[in-house]
Amino acid sequence: MGALSYYMDPYLPERAFNAHLNVGWWNHNEAGNMVYDVGNRQYAATKISTELQYAVGTVYPTSLFDYRLELNGISYINQPDEFVYSRENWMYVTPSIRYKFSSFFSLDLGIDIRLMGNEDETNTTLVPDKSNEDFNLPNYADWKVNMGLNLKILPFVSTSKSAAEIERQEFNERVEFFQDIVEKREQSQDIQEELEKLKEEREAAEKELEELRQIMEEEQK
């Protein structure tokens, strides 16, 4: 299995767009092993199946939310025997969002949507058709909802840190400090702009009132 990550800002990886790729090769090595024991019949694998596993994900972070999109699945290079139930290639796309309550606590919510793997390729003349029993479900669900709760507990654990980790933490704290200053300055600028608009509107209203007063005085003469 191999992993590759790209961060638009390597100094602040959690604050900028980032993308990730995972690719792996899996050898089941099942030839000669018993796979199923159904009733009075046993099914032993006659060949070795191999598959390619992959996952691609992107994250677009903001101050309050992380917007994420992931694509993952498997693709058989050598398919298992026909009596194996999960012998289909499959693929899911997962849009998700992370709500960051604080730096120590966040909540994940996403949905897996199947893009590939809806056809059952199992030879049901060899093994019972499980999809028609109970709920008539496919080998892989059409969709799945997933939720996650993230708690950051490391700050509460007494651990020794290296000089590089301490420097990194201090750097992040300085960035957060200056970011707060920028946000407060932007808020103050917005307030100042609103005050300027209110001032202009008041001056315009006073001008209109003065014009009306002059018109009324001329009519009275």
Kindly estimate the percentage of residues that lie in beta strands according to DSSP: 35-45%
Counting DSSP H or I runs of 4 or more residues, the number of helices is 1
Radius of gyration: 31 Å
The low-confidence runs, each spanning 5 or more residues with pLDDT under 50, are: none
Structural class: alpha+beta
The beta-strand count equals: 9
Helix content: 25-40%
**Alpha-carbon distance between the two ends:** 95 Å
Reported for the largest beta sheet, the result is:
7 strands, antiparallel
Could you give the order of strands across the largest sheet? 1-2-5-6-7-8-9
Shape estimate: elongated
SSE order: EEEEEEEEEH
Mean pLDDT: 83
Can you describe this structure?
- With 221 residues, this protein is α+β, with helices and mostly antiparallel strands.
- The protein has one helix and nine strands; from the N terminus they run E-E-E-E-E-E-E-E-E-H.
- The protein has one helix at residues 163-220; strands at residues 2-7, 18-27, 34-38, 41-44, 50-61, 65-78, 90-100, 105-116, 143-151.
- Strands 1-2-5-6-7-8-9 form a seven-stranded antiparallel sheet, with no helix packed on it. Strands 3-4 form a two-stranded antiparallel ribbon.
- Strand 3 (34-38) and strand 4 form a beta hairpin.
- The longest helix is centred in the last third of the chain and has 58 residues, at 163-220.
- It is elongated.
- The model has no long low-confidence stretch (mean pLDDT 83).
